[in-house]
Amino acid sequence: MIVPQPCARCGGEIPPERLEAIPETRVCVACSKEMGGEFTVVATPERISKEGSLKKNYGGYSTQKIRRPIKPKSSE
Ligand SMILES: [Zn+2]
């Protein structure tokens, strides 16, 4: 069962459907849109071949989600 969480930006309620889709979210849908997205995704190439190896690196990219700073709506 998902407990609704208060939005870190406007204090409103984050709908359980959003928490279910993005459990790490801290803001509601409207605030996320206003911020231009809550997270920035950074892709880093994975290095799987050993040093000096002629094998090509077929590793993919590991993605990292970085949370944007959340400013309270009232201070903007
Ligand atoms: Zn909000």
Automatic annotation (TrEMBL):
User: What are the residue ranges of zinc fingers typed dksA C4-type?
Assistant: 7-31
InterPro entries with a match to the protein in the record: Znf_DskA_TraR (IPR000962)
List all membrane-crossing ranges.
Answer: none
Show the segment(s) annotated as Disordered: 53-76
Q: Does the keyword Zinc apply?
A: yes
> Which superkingdom is the protein from?
Bacteria
Keywords from UniProt, A to Z, are: Metal-binding, Zinc, Zinc-finger
Output this protein's name.
TraR/DksA C4-type zinc finger protein
Q: Zinc finger DksA/TraR C4-type domain: from which residue to which, for each copy?
A: 7-31
**What ranges does the record list as Basic residues composition bias?**
65-76
- The keyword Metal-binding is assigned to this record: yes
